[in-house]
């Protein structure tokens, strides 16, 4: 078994990204305690009928140079499910679960919900906040890692919503830290990998966990230029930036915990790799690789009999999980004759929901860094993003909230 590293050791043949551990990154990244009026649950948004599909895709891809063929392909994924993404329903359920958890803990914070790309929009949530007299919002974005698409774009869209509603001088939106290594987010993945390994061992006679199974941690591919810019410059991430380093560090933690739960001999480590999915953009533009399907086909001819697919980059079973994993990746595994399962996303797992409430409270109360739960050396992540953190070189500078002003 390997340990979490920041110091250039190799993890299962994958290069390790050098970076300053959070503890050494300076004390200034914990924000002052703040008396918030409400929580803003910020979702991606998705279509809820055939007529929504094209307008939704236009919203997502505005100004992004996504080829027309890719849009048609993605529209087909949605059409296959009646034009409905389950993501809005997931966020309704998450909102209800957060409200129940807040009530249980007697915390008086209403939850407002708004999406980046579909109704209800962030502008609706901001107007609702104003109508109710709320001026200080703490946002939870349904996205755990650092990158343009998974962090900064939410912050830019908050700024845009405040601009569009002309409420920027009345309403403040802060955002909880990226929670990739918060135990509430990680525990459901640990449980899922443990259960999958137990199932594989029970169903495949004489399975050798040290050689005959591969755990594939899958996340959304992003353009390599976005990956390189993910995380603050001062932390010194190289290569594919904080985005890749965070996923690798979390995967390490998940594997170590799952192996411990199976009481494997300490000499046995279960093979795993980080893979990417759902690439778009023109073929000429480099995105993070390997693609999950290529990675599965590459296992052909080796000792692998079984694959465990872990949707590490996602918080719920939305379209990227239902189509790209449950449809395509499981089919790729079938083509190679591999036994395969896909493990759950956090969804509304009570551990995850409790963790999200804890993330809000640590901001409200200004909990010091040393008391903040985190499972990797890379965290606990920043309350307030640094200038240039997760910037998008293709789209250029756009104003964002919840960060230091350059
Ligand atoms: C890192 C990341 C996450 C994880 C973090 C997070 O969750 O925020 C994520 C989530 C999601 N992505 C989603 C859907 C789409 N993403 C697209 C396009 C893109 N995603 C990107 C990155 C990410 N995406 C990028 C770099 C692009 C290229 C265009 C651009 O630079 O923006 C496109 C356009 C067509 C296409 O190119 O595929 C669609 C339709 C849905 C909703 C699913 C549903 O409806 O159930 C969800 C949760
Ligand atoms: Fe996406």
UniProtKB/TrEMBL annotation:
Polar residues: compositionally biased ranges: 1-12
Q: List keywords of the entry alphabetically.
A: Cytoplasm, Heme biosynthesis, Iron, Lyase, Metal-binding, Porphyrin biosynthesis
Report the domain of life of the source organism.
Answer: Bacteria
Transmembrane segment boundaries: none
> Which catalysed reactions does the entry list for this protein?
Fe-coproporphyrin III + 2 H(+) = coproporphyrin III + Fe(2+)
Return any one Pfam family short name.
Ferrochelatase
Q: Which residues bind Fe-coproporphyrin III?
A: 85, 154
**Under which EC number(s) is this enzyme classified?**
4.99.1.9
* Cellular localisation: Cytoplasm
Q: Which parts of the sequence are annotated with region: Disordered?
A: 1-25
Q: Which NCBIfam families match?
A: PRK00035.2-1
Similarity comment text for this entry: Belongs to the ferrochelatase family.
The entry's function note states: Involved in coproporphyrin-dependent heme b biosynthesis. Catalyzes the insertion of ferrous iron into coproporphyrin III to form Fe-coproporphyrin III.
Q: Know the name of this protein? A: Coproporphyrin III ferrochelatase
Its ancestry begins with: Bacteria, Bacillati, Actinomycetota, Actinomycetes, Micrococcales
């Amino acid at each position: 078994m390997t340990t979490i590293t920041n110091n250039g050791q190799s993890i299962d043949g994958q290069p390790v990204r050098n970076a300053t551990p959070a503890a050494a990154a300076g004390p200034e990244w914990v924000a002052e305690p703040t008396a918030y009026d409400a929580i803003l649950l910020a979702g991606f948004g998705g279509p809820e009928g055939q007529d929504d599909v094209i307008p939704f895709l236009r919203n997502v891809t505005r100004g992004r140079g996504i080829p027309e063929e890719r849009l048609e392909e993605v529209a087909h994924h949605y059409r296959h499910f009646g034009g409905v993404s389950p993501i809005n329903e997931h966020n309704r359920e998450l909102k209800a679960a957060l409200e129940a958890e807040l009530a249980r803990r007697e915390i008086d914070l209403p939850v407002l919900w708004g999406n980046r790309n579909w109704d209800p929009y962030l502008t609706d949530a901001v107007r609702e906040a104003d109508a109710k007299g709320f001026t200080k919002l703490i946002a939870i974005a349904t996205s755990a890692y650092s990158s343009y698409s998974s962090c900064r774009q939410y912050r830019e869209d908050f700024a845009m919503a405040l601009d569009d509603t002309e409420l920027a001088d009345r309403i403040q939106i802060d955002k909880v830290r990226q929670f990739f290594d918060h135990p509430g987010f990680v525990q459901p993945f640990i449980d899922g990998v443990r259960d999958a390994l137990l199932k594989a061992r029970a169903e495949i006679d004489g399975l050798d966990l040290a050689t005959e199974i591969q755990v594939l941690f899958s996340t959304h591919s992003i353009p390599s230029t976005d990956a390189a810019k993910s995380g603050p410059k001062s932390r010194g991430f190289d290569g594919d930036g904080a985005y890749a380093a965070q996923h690798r560090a979390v995967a390490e933690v998940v594997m170590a915990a799952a192996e411990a739960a199976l009481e494997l001999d300490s000499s046995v480590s279960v093979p795993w790799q980080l893979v990417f999915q759902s690439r778009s953009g023109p073929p000429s533009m480099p995105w993070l690789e390997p693609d999950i399907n290529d990675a599965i086909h590459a296992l052909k001819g080796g000792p692998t009999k079984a694959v465990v697919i872990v949707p590490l980059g996602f918080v719920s079973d939305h379209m990227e999980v239902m189509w790209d994993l449950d449809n395509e990746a499981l089919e790729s595994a079938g083509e190679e004759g591999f036994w395969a399962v896909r493990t759950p996303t956090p969804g509304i797992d009570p551990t995850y929901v409790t963790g999200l409430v804890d993330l809000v409270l640590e901001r409200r109360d200004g909990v010091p860094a040393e008391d903040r739960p985190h499972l990797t050396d890379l965290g606990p992540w920043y309350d307030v993003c640094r200038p240039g953190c997760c910037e998008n070189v293709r789209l250029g500078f756009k104003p964002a909230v919840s960060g230091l002003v350059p």
